[in-house]
Queue: 2 jobs
Job 1
Amino acid sequence: MQETKLRQLVQARRWTTYPAFLAQFHRAARVVAERDFDPRLASLTISEKTFKRWLTGQVRTQPRPDVVRVLEALFDQPISVLFQGVRETAPGLPPGETNGPSAERQIHMAAQRALRFSTLVLSDELSSDTIGTLHDEATRISLAYAVDPAPNLIADLLDLQDITFTLTEGRHRPDRSRELHFLAGVASGLMAKASLDLGNPRAALTQAKVALLCAERAGHHELAAKIISWQALTAYWAGWSRQAVDFARQGASLGTGGRVSIFLPAVEARAHAELGDRESAVTALAAAEEAAHRHETTDLDGLGGLFDFPHCRQAYFRAETHVLLDPASADAVRSADYAVAAMTAASPRDRYFANEASARAHQAVTRIATGDLDGAQEALAPVLELPAGCRNQDVVVSVMRAHRQLADAGRRTPGAGRSLQEQIEHFARTGPRSLGM
């Protein structure tokens, strides 16, 4: 019997019976089919004989390419790890064709190995070029986060965090040490956001504490404020609205500039609205507006992606605040429509798929509240088509608010919106956590 990582994972997750494993495999196949726009994969299956060979380790070759894609998604591991030591070429494949990672993925993995070598192996010669390389990698990941689902970025984030943590343990000039702690704080902050998006707010707060410590070691008050703003965001989406208010005010007390000075009161406004405190919510929105007029771009804003807070995202936060206060109000309807329009018209660099999806979900809430169920279906249609990996915690919570609004409509008109409710429930059940990601 040949021990494989796949066998270990199957046993750890208690999928050791064929029906139990097949159910998970079919679910992953449907997600990959949707993610890769490849409908063939939705009906992909494996035989019980193949499953037993995998489980007993009696395998001589790796699976075919389509099966590889599903297994890699199901276990979030490359096939070379799942079947370590097993020959790559499968029977029946043309000579020279293998079912390992794509050429594009191999190039990316090679670049990550080169980054690790150049920074860790040569760390005794830490230079401005090395710091610049790490800064470029942090910028790349932050920008990618706006368009890629969190599961696709976890491995790169772990690499960046591990490299920067390792380097901070060495002896460096004070200015190099501050730069390294800044980058470690950025990596840990992004990991905190990824933890939240994958539905683990407690892990997110743990990562944020580490990021905050790094920011303090770096002497970077603006990064500290940004990390605290993500703590507020985490508390808000976890349903801890009063703690979200406390975090937002703590971050604002640092008196920093840049986009985070807009972001903090915007997060606070939503938390007040969730608590039903209209006066405080409106005051916080006004503070965000004022900060937007007087802010100046900083080096942290220059990272882009999640470290930026452009106008279209500001419009979404404002809309969500009004929707939470009164979804049927003129302010809610007007601001929700404007937020979606602003997102649609924004440049690719400024758009963030999760905020855009949440903006559409809140637009749907206003339409349900005003009796326009067809309009709600139209608003939610592109959201409900998001691949499973893009169904972040905030997106799912936002869509479920439309579900609750439909429940209110159903109490007034029995049966209203039942089909849309069923679509929403299916959407919420098939996010990243349902695949164990």
Job 2
Amino acid sequence: MSKTRMRPVFGDIPSCSLSHRLEERIVRIKAMKLELSRKTDKPEDFITYDDSDSDEEPLSVQNEILTTSYSFVDYVRNRELGYTNYSSVANDYGNRHILTHEMFKETPVNLPHMNKVFCSQWLSDRQVVFGTKCNKLMVYDVMTHKIDQIPSLLSKRDMMGSDPQPPQQCGIHSVQINPSRTLLATGARNTCDIAVYRLPTLDPVCVGENAHKDWVFDMCWLDDEFLVSGSRDTKMALWRITPDMLESKDEIPTHKHIQPISLKDCRGAQKVRAITFNKSYDEIAALSLNGYIHIWSAETFKQKLSRKLPSAQENVCLAVQDSGLYAIGCRSYTLLLDCRTLQAVKKVSSRYSGCGIRSASFQGDVLTVGTGLGMLMFYDLKAGKYLESSINSSRTVVLKASKGYVYPDEEYVDNINIKYVPAIYTHCYDASGTRLFTAGGPLPATLTGNYAGLWQ
């Protein structure tokens, strides 16, 4: 997880240059190849082969291995001496270490009078913002455990009462922060509109209206000014929040009303469920409920292609890794897609029957998935398997959420004993990756309730 280029204190070679390290490395590589060569009953969807069967490594590689220490103690010592050019540490080291050593402990968060948390983001190292099905935008302070509600913004048609139908309030499904962390985009009072707030004060900036005729399910920032939203009406809208909107000098915070600079149909889609921005390839990926993934150009805001997914059942969440790999949560597995070809690289089974994937995110090379059975699972992309516990190697790392609140709290439905567990609709890591906020609520639409927990 850490790499430190060691320099000799006395002589020509550093203290870590020991020949048995190369021998141990060869043994590990052979064991890994043997494990990969074992044939399973179910063949993999995607298989890679080494370009060489030779066990010999170039002399330059051997020298680099012998002069490199992977000890975290050496990394800290070099950092204290100021030799930062000779050392590095993986960004997900802390997160991976805490998970494999089962150090995460849950602190349940009490959410009175709220129904189902759908989305969340860390605002700072002590504040989390989340949106609920009952259309509340809340801020939770992890230090004082205080919860504050942020007023929802009204569009013109709702303020003037010109809309023949009452405002649709069916939940805030998305909360997104721009790259410079100066603006927050989410749903407005009317779920068909979007609202933008200034950070860190959360003063209102603007309401985006007259684009969607159905619920806005998701949105993503392309940069600090341009925002894309996707809706159940199958339309994609492009918005621009210009710097002059932020230069309000009014003593009482007010917000402006903006129109989309572009509004287009997502061809081949039935209800856009999730969208994300793939920065590595400058494209927007949209997931629709009829089992398609749609790729748009971020430069021209034009749809480039659509591809049918292997499963059309409950494709409800979409995440992208920094390298461009897509993860799509389905009913019984998580689908990994190569963004260059949209071919399925792997189907990651959820390990538990009836365990639908409700939320997904990447933390380095670890894919985190929240399930409909109140569990979070962690898939190691490099190892090609679920993260294993360092305490008990026969056990995979799983975080089980507490019950939360549900109404009606009945153990028997139609004379069938049902043990209630919350669905993890959202989860997010803080900047360090060492704290995890999870939230959700009951999966059946007929049940009211919520769940939230802080793992640290």
